[in-house]
Design brief:
Layout: E1 6-11, H1 22-41, E2 46-52, H2 58-65, H3 70-87, E3 94-97, H4 101-116, E4 121-130, E5 135-136, E6 142-145, E7 154-155, E8 172-176, E9 184-193, H5 199-208, H6 216-228, E10 233-234, E11 236-238, E12 253-255, H7 257-278, H8 300-303, E13 307-312, H9 318-332, E14 347-349, H10 364-370, H11 375-384, E15 392-394, H12 396-426, H13 438-459, H14 463-484, H15 486-489, H16 494-514, H17 520-530, H18 564-588, H19 597-602, E16 605-615, E17 623-628, E18 633-638, H20 646-649, E19 653-657, E20 663-665, E21 668-670, E22 673-674, E23 676-678, E24 684-686, E25 698-699
Parallel strand pairs: 1-2, 1-13, 2-3, 14-15
Antiparallel strand pairs: 4-5, 4-9, 6-7, 6-8, 9-10, 11-12, 16-17, 16-19, 16-25, 17-18, 19-22, 20-21, 23-24
The chain binds one RNA strand of 77 nucleotides through helix 6, helix 12, helix 14, helix 15 and strand 22.
RNA sequence: GGCGCGGUAGCUCAGGUGGUUAGAGCGUUGGAUUCAUAACCCAAAGGUCGGGGGUUCAACUCCCCCCCGCGCUACCA
């Protein structure tokens, strides 16, 4: 493995439009923090940056929802997320935010640099413009009738009713959400990054250069994108929230959020060195001594080939961190590109996908409210279950069992045993070590190799394996005590017991070092109980960390058991939250505009019998149904393939709109629409009369 | 439908370039023990490695087909 002079480690910028949950922690922040703490302990020159991502259309959207301003939204969530990270021990050197002036400057500089080098293509297209608001409308600010399902409040980019991905031009009767006016099409100019020009470079850099050292999931995802062929992407948007495009002709335009967000890592680094060099810390919180620094020192961390750049992210960010941002850095020319992007998969929760909007999540602040003194327990559980190679699962029962059977019973118990025995037999002082037996020498050998084995795992981003190694170190201690049985020997051979406990305490001291990256709060506690200053990883594996005669501190329990009741409560809380959100979602779905009876009478709703049903070729959602409507036998395509098999549908009575304008889908005309109800999980159920009626029966 | 990643003991997961009896932790069962938060320590039971073909002296590991989960993408209620 190549040796680097220094490390720049980034953790994904959390989007400041809402709270972040433990899945985000597992995906990026915890592994990044462990990695960085380990590097620091090894004495490496490492800088750990992150910050809030505060631009993009979803911020004003959230402001609309919470009936406040975009500024208020980012201020609220920036503080909330930052504080949660702090309480969980995520030790950033700086946690910045993209709304800061230095970030705007940096982003504009990079944009201008690329623009001046001719790296960006100009393209003119037609987009909706609201005359009254004097603004181009971002996709989300246009609503209209969905051309697919007829939903009257579909957004310009997506219909939330049917899930269709739309473009604003497709909407029927579009209107602006700002003023309610009908928007007009106007020409607008945007700047595109021609990703396809860098395909060859990506092939060399990733497909050839990182075939072995990148994780398969990351590599596979990149290969998939590159092989599919890349397309030019707009790097600017018509929006009033974001970083102004620094060109005179770009009034009212901002940088695309995915252009500026990753630059946030760079601007955070700039902010860090500026603040530290001035001695005025606002966002920076240096976690180690950086010595005398200059504002320009940020360049070493981004432009020197001897710097190893590592991005920690979740799998949803792979394309941006492995394709788009590296292309930006490479095209610009002054910057290094990431050496590795150890993206994790997703963590599920109690058998279902985690989702803040669906209420199926454990938000960081919720956990910290309920378990304020247990940040390490969460860190441990997430580390032990990290979705490194595939989606993994967090359950409260596992949380309890990890805590009770591993942290309490193995790690905490060993530390407690060693300390209590020393208190009892040797007046709380490190006893003298005399001649070593074979069993002692064997234990010392294991002690010597375990930390380097853990280090090895960390270097390769195998965090689960490393975490297991930490527990093995405690197991070594437990086994050593069980094998030597000092409590039996104390009467007959106190000198031997001294040797045994001396060694046991050396193992505890090692735990104080090795546990630090994983369980920083507990490691601190261990060192306090040992009454010693923390040491670096370089000392790990040593069997002479604790000097003879050294007085130990006051011992207390590292971890406490979690009772069944606590777990039951959390499960209830989770289910209640989900129910609450579901009813909220249903009740907040606004009623559609009032219609007259005549409007209603236009609809020809009938009951039909499904005569035939078959899967549509090349479609995963559509079933082709032949329905007896009483007046005819017609073909209706229905997107229920994921909910009903063709066999299930045959012979069923359904309700349909018989006079809907036919629509062609996948080359076949659908002559009507089957009415379906959707439950909270997105499952579709068809509507049926309570008793069998004749096909063609009119619904009114 | 296309592409990517997965499908290994009851549960959560390890198993570069194919090679003796397929591993770990938890759980279960049994034993030992009492210094320790009834914790620790030892041992055992438990898997036809998603299914079916093929290549090979030999496949969890390579190739083909199929099924299931997740993601991206297309089409879409």
């Amino acid at each position: 493995m190549k040796e680097f002079k220094r490390y720049t480690v980034t953790a994904a910028l959390p989007y400041a439009n809402g709270p972040k949950h433990i899945g985000h922690l597992a995906g990026a922040y915890i592994p990044a923090d462990v990695y960085v703490r380990y590097l620091r302990s090894m004495g490496k020159d490492v800088l750990f940056v992150s910050g809030s991502d505060e631009h993009g259309t979803a911020i004003p959207n959230q402001a609309l929802k919470e009936k406040t301003t975009s500024r208020a939204i980012i201020d609220k969530y920036h503080v909330q997320i930052r504080d949660c990270f702090r309480k969980l021990g995520i030790a950033f050197d700086i946690y910045h935010r993209t709304s800061e002036p230095i970030h705007h400057e940096t982003s504009q500089e990079i944009f201008l640099n690329m623009f001046n080098k001719g790296l960006l293509d100009e393209e003119i297209s037609e987009q909706y413009y609201d005359d009254e608001a004097k603004a181009f409308l971002a996709d989300r600010y246009i609503v209209g009738t969905c051309p697919r399902c007829g939903h009257t409040n579909a957004y310009g980019d997506q219909c939330e009713k049917c899930g269709s991905t739309l473009s604003p031009r497709e909407l029927i009767n579009p209107r602006s959400t700002l003023t309610g006016n009908v928007p007009a099409l106007r020409e607008t100019k945007h700047w595109y990054l021609p990703l396809e020009k860098y395909e060859h470079w990506l092939q060399e850099w990733i497909l050839k250069g990182h075939a072995k050292d990148w994780k398969v999931n990351v590599y596979g995802q990149c290969k998939s994108w590159i092989d599919a062929g890349l397309q030019s992407r707009a790097m600017t948007r018509d929006l009033d929230w974001g970083i102004k495009v620094p060109l005179p002709e770009a009034e009212g335009k901002v940088l695309y959020v995915w252009f500026d967000a990753p630059i946030g890592y760079i601007s955070a680094t700039r902010a860090f060195f500026r603040e530290v060099s001035l001695g005025k810390l606002e966002f920076a919180q240096p976690q180690r001594s950086f010595g005398l620094v200059q504002p320009e020192d940020w360049k070493k961390y981004w432009q020197d080939k001897e710097t190893k750049l590592v991005h920690f992210i979740g799998k949803d960010n792979i394309v941006f961190h492995c394709i788009i941002f590296p292309i930006m850095l490479h095209a610009h020319g002054d910057y290094i590109v990431p050496d590795n992007v150890p993206a994790n998969e997703f963590m599920n929760l109690e058998g279902d996908k985690m989702s803040t909007s669906r209420g199926w999540s454990i938000e960081m602040h919720e956990y910290l409210e309920d378990f304020p003194d247990k940040p390490d327990v969460l860190r441990y559980c997430l580390l032990a279950n990290l979705p490194e190679t595939k989606d993994s699962e967090f359950t409260w029962k596992d949380f309890q069992s990890r805590n009770n059977n591993e942290l309490v019973a193995i790690l905490g118990n060993f530390v407690n045993r060693a300390l209590v025995l020393t208190q009892k037999y040797f007046d709380n002082k490190v006893p003298h070590r005399s001649t070593l037996d074979t069993i002692d020498i064997k234990a010392i050998e294991v002690l010597r190799v375990l930390p380097s084995r853990i280090a090895q795992s960390l270097e390769y981003f195998h965090f689960r394996e490393a975490t297991a190694g930490l527990l093995d170190l405690a197991r070594l201690g437990n086994k050593y005590l069980a094998d030597t049985e000092p409590w039996k020997l104390i009467k007959s051979d106190p000198v031997r017991v001294g040797t045994i406990l001396n060694l046991a305490l050396q193992i505890v001291a090692n735990l104080g070092i090795v546990a630090e990256p994983f369980l920083p709060f507990s490691a601190k506690k261990i060192n306090e109980m040992l009454n010693r200053k923390p040491e670096t990883w370089i000392d790990a594996g040593s069997d002479v960390l604790m000097a003879e005669g050294h007085a130990l501190g006051v011992s207390s329990l590292l971890f406490e058991k979690i009772e069944d009741g606590v777990i039951v409560q959390q499960l209830e809380k989770l289910h209640n939250k989900k129910l609450g959100i579901e009813t909220e979602v249903y009740s907040s779905m606004p009623l559609k505009d009032e219609i007259t009876f005549d409007d209603f009478a236009k609809l020809d709703i009938r009951v039909g019998n499904v005569l035939k049903a078959e899967k549509m070729e090349k479609s995963s959602k559509l079933l082709k149904l032949i329905v007896d409507t009483g007046v005819d036998h017609r073909t209706i395509l229905s997107g229920i393939a994921q909910h009903y098999t063709p066999e299930e549908m045959v012979g069923k009575q359904v309700t349909l709109i018989a006079n809907l304008k036919p629509r062609k889908m996948m080359g076949i005309e659908s002559q009507g629409m089957i009415l379906m109800a959707e439950d909270a999980k997105g499952k579709l159920k068809f509507l049926q009369p309570s008793d069998i009626v004749s096909p063609g029966a009119v619904v009114s």
